[in-house]
Amino acid sequence: MNTEQLAGHLLVECLVAQGVTHAFGVPGESYLAVLDGFHRHQGHIRFITNRQEGGAAFMAEAQGKLTGRPGICFVTRGPGATNASIGVHTAFQDSTPMVLFVGDVASDARDREAFQELDYGHFFGPSTRGMAKRVERIDDPERIPEYIARAFATAMNGRPGPVVLVLPEDMLTRPVQARPLPRVEPAQAWSDPGALRELRSLLLAEQRPLVLAGGGGWTPQAAAALQRFAENWQLPVANTFRFQDTFDNHHPQYAGDVGLGINPALARRIRESDLLIAIGPRLGESTTGGYTLIEAPTPAQKLVHIHASAEELHRVYQPVLAIQSSMNAAARSLEVLTAPPQLPWTGWTQGCHADYLANIDAANGGVQLPGPIDMPAIIHTLQRLLPADAVLTNGAGNFASWLHRFYRYPGLARGLKTQLAPTNGAMGYGVPAGIAASILSGRTVFTIAGDGDFLMNGQELATAAQHGARTIVLLVNNGSYGTIRMHQEREYPGHVSGSALGNPDFCALARAYGHAAERVEATAGFEPALARALAHSGSTVIELMLDADVITTRGTLASIREAALARLGQA
User: Of 561 and 241, which is predicted with more confidence?
Assistant: First the structure.
């Protein structure tokens, strides 16, 4: 029996064999045979047509975060690949499994600077400062199953991350007899028993321990085991930057999030701790306060670093104990460490949680905001009205700091991931990530975006309408690139340049895409608007008109400028 088929059809079959149900992308003539494969297998896998490759790559990255398996993105050569690179970089820095497929020039045109030709190996890496864990070109169509299986294994094993596979156009149209390989599961690297005994000894010798949890590779089972470990030892747990759903924010041992705009009380606790146990995070610049909150290369505190990648351990920090382990294996190992009946730091743990509660109490030392919008009240309204399993997404900008400070994520231990946010600070992430989350999960999805952030991928509202996604977008409009304006006022007070925005009528724009839309100009108007959006069968954009002087959760433009002028005057 002749089992030959086009290589492009085989590639789609291989994705189906790996359990892929959705792929995101912008179609290109370089991979028409793959698109035909999606048509043949449309009962098993959906190709979601995006409006720009950056949005497609962000959707695939969100898919990887939500599912724990590689998100899938298809783009064409040259401009398509470079547009998609923002999502690849996000997946790399966020440790998210992802596979980007790039249609390429035909083999007989290679190395001639053919139409849209690019050297993808040099462009994407791989390197310690690259964008991908592996970049490979498939020249032999019979080896497609091998390359697909290796890409999935590479994306999931060790520190999760993106893989790029390059597909010559002529290769995809050749007949093949190969068949898909079985579904790849991530390998589990177990903690060394001797290292675990050493960790227990370190715990017994200290008075003020603190756990930092985050990074990629977490599952609900691993998060639940982490919670049991923390409870057994009565340890305070802080989540790292934009991994706030790793540990339940409602838990009495939760200490808050360690990232941009950190609670000063938590920063003080980290500096005062005598043992930091970092489980999963890279300990990058945002989590460590520019490598000063935890000093590099030798921290003032004793540091235990547990990470899935051997290359990450000792890379920046010199820990007293380094343990290479996947998060599933690490957490399951930690939860069986026996704790003594009495621990000296229970008061310390209670104090860490009390600091967190004080920080999210808007009336406790909060800044009086100018204008009719009370942002803490807006976030508290979200907390009351959104369902517990809602997915919240955001891009980058000062608007996100309100969500990070005041929203309490239920934690992955409850079974579902609820936060999708880019640790690499990529603007334009929230809208496409929210659309992907809706398509993939069917849950309520809420996105918060700034005006500048929204316009970077707002065109993906058309993708939402076409593919039946249902999202609620809170568009915080302050007429500026707020983060840049904040830094300008700190460094060059009163010298505004390049950060002001002239915006369209966002409500009219949203309606043009088929979304419901309304504008909110005072706090009292937000709750009924959100209630209407939750009851609406389709998507909604709520434009929130924020005074330009409202800039961070701890200050205003006026206060930042005043402090900067005082500093310059003293100088």
Answer: 241
